[in-house]
Amino acid sequence: MKSKHSTRRYSRPVVLLHWAGVALMVMIVASGELRHLGVKTEWITMREAMVVHIGAAMAFLFLLIPRLLARIFGPRAPSQVAASPFARFAAHAVHIALYLFVIGECLIGWAIVNAKGMRIPMPVLGFEFPALVPEHERLVAWTVDAHMALGFILYTAIAMHVGAALWHHFVQRDGVLKRMSL
Fold it and tell me: Using one digit for the tens of pLDDT, what is the confidence trace for 34-51?
């Protein structure tokens, strides 16, 4: 059944940045949530899991810069005409929440590493990220708790985003998901 709604797509850079972000998010979640299972089964060491987790998170954080610039200043795909004002508001609110939660989660993770007295090296690029916070044992506990709590909220926002995309695709059949395809 062909959709009667607009399916004009997002720009290629926005689509590529979106799906690169999805791939990085899968790496972040898998390495963060499955690290204990991986270590227990000796599939991966904790250090290797955390290198993947932190590296993917830092890549995601800095991928947000061109992504936000492309979203703010680039051409926009037109809004779906069938969307109610509330649906448009909800979509914008979830997108803003996703950006804020991802940025917050990455910065808190960066602070955890620094509070433990470590830095985040980027050997391929020849530098290391500066410390956001000084080494501090109590700060480690607070930031880990904050990272876990915000992670749960972020997962909820991601589930809402994915659920809405699938609902639009399979129930509404309004072309929303096709707009973010290559």
Answer: 988 888 899 889 999 999
Q: What is the pLDDT of residues 12-39, one digit of tens each?
A: 888 999 999 999 999 999 999 998 888 8
Q: Where are the domains of the chain?
A: 10-77, 79-181
User: What is the rounded end-to-end Cα distance, in angstroms, of the chain?
Assistant: 21
CA gap 70, 72 in Å, rounded:
6
Whether the pLDDT of residue 60 is over 70: the answer is yes
The candidate with the shortest Cα–Cα distance to 28, out of 164, 160, 147, is: 147
Query: In whole angstroms, what is the distance from residue 55 CA to residue 43 CA?
Result: 19
